[in-house]
Amino acid sequence: MRRALATRINKLEAARKPIVRAPCVLHVRRDETIGDARARFAATYPDAKRGHSLLIVPERVRTPEDEAAFDVAFKLQQERSLAEARSMRPKESD
Fold first, then answer.
1. What pLDDT band is residue 9 in, cutting at 50, 70 and 90?
2. CA neighbor of 25 nearest in space, from 58, 55, 67, 63
3. Which of 6, 53, 62, 74 is the most exposed place for a label (fewest CB within 10 A)?
C-alpha cells in the first residue's frame, strides 16, 4: 500500500515536459514559399502530428493609410453594435 502511494506521489511530483500545442494557422512571410513555411513550422513544432491541418495565410503589406482606414471602420462598427444593443434594451417603466 505504501509503495503504491509512493509511486503515485512520485509520478505527480515528477517534472513533466510542458505540453506545447501546435497552432492551426501558419503565416507565410513575404519572402518565403509555402514549403519554407511548412519547414519552419516543422522545426518549431517537431511534435506536431503528421497531417496536422493548417490554415495557410499569406502576409500582407500594411501601410499607415491601411491602418488608419481599419481604425475608422472598426470604430464605426463598434458604434453600430453599441447602438443596436442599446436599442434592444427594454425600457424601464415608471
1. confident
2. 55
3. 53
Residue type, 15: A
For residue 47, give the nearest of 17, 7, 3, 85 by alpha carbon: 17
8 A C-beta contact, residue 23 and residue 53:
no
Statement: the pTM of the whole predicted model exceeds 0.70 = no
Half-sphere exposure of 48 (CA within 13 A, CB side): 18
Taking each continuous run of H as one helix and of E as one strand, the counts in the chain are: 3, 2
Beta bridge mates, 57: 27
- Model pLDDT, residue 11: 83
Which of 66, 20, 62, 60 is CA-nearest to residue 41?
20
Dump strand ranges (E) for 8-59. 25-28, 55-58
Q: Are 42 and 13 in contact (CB under 8 A)?
A: no
Q: Are 26 and 37 in contact (CB under 8 A)?
A: yes
